[in-house]
Amino acid sequence: MKRLLALLLVVPVLSGCGVHTVDTGHRGIKTSFGQVEGPPLAEGLYFVNPFTTSIHPMDVRIQRWDGKTEAYTRDVQEATVEFTLTYKLRPEAAADVFRTVGPDWASKLVGQQVYQHLKNVIGQWDAVDLISNRQKANDDAQVAIVAALAQSNVDVTGFSITNFEFSRAFNEAVEAKVIAQQRAQEAQQQIEPQITSLQQEIDTTTAALNALQGQQASSSQAAARMVPSLGRAALAAAKAFALTALKPSPGGSMRPFCEPPTVTSTPHSSCR
């Protein structure tokens, strides 16, 4: 009898209560008359007044987004950028995000920030450089996206640019450039032996010329040393000749360069 009375008392009470469950990986946002009330609710079972109070689930698990967007490089080449982003809502901020943004916070916050900062980074590179520096562009975009979403209470756990696609005309131009560079390298490899041989000939000719110039310099120095000796010899010869010319004649005269007397009908001296 007592059990029946207790049951009769409990049933009306339970019939007037709402039962809500906050699942694992979620937070419950309690609202009364449409206003957020209290901090986020952890996983568990909750009883509320169904007429005045509601509990709204907010997913705080890591979510994955595989996206694609169009962007322009610095040299105005259109690129299709494919990427993967993993992110999650901060559990302690779930009530504030629900109040200010709403339950569809992911579509309102994440996409806008990712597109904006990814396009900004792509616009800082030329198309050719972007292909060879994908990791650097990926890191720059990740830093900007992480900082932007953190201000909205969203944590980024991973970001990766998975692919770049350019127009057909651009791809053909890049291919032609690569082929031209390869041909230039092959041509350079072919002429390098000829350049080496010519350089060796130049070095040999230069060495021979230097040797010849050295010999000529030695000959000039020897000739310069011989000139004073020849001068002294000529001076000595001149002095000897002068002494001979000034030597007194047998008749006691010192008149130089006189012709010998000539015998004629009238005797006279040839020297006057």
CATH domain class of the domain at 63-172:
Alpha Beta
Proportion in β-strands: 15-25%
Task: Please estimate the helix content.
Answer: 40-55%
What's the alpha carbon Rg, rounded to whole Å?
56 Å
Instruction: Characterize the largest beta sheet: strand count, sense, and whether it forms a barrel.
Output: 3 strands, antiparallel
Regions with pLDDT < 50 over 5+ consecutive residues?
Answer: 5-15, 268-272
Shape: rod-shaped
Fold-level CATH name of the domain at 63-172? Tetrahydropterin Synthase, Chain A
The name of the CATH architecture of the domain at 63-172 is: 2-Layer Sandwich
Number of helices: 6
Distance between the termini: 194 Å
Query: For the residues shown, what is the average pLDDT?
Result: 81
- What is the string of helix and strand elements? HEEEEEEEHHHHEH
**Which homologous superfamily in CATH is the superfamily of the domain at 63-172?**
Band 7 domain
Keywords:
disordered C terminus; Tetrahydropterin Synthase, Chain A; 51% helix; three-stranded antiparallel sheet; 6 helices; 22% strand; single chain
In short:
With 272 residues, this protein is α+β, with helices and mostly antiparallel strands.
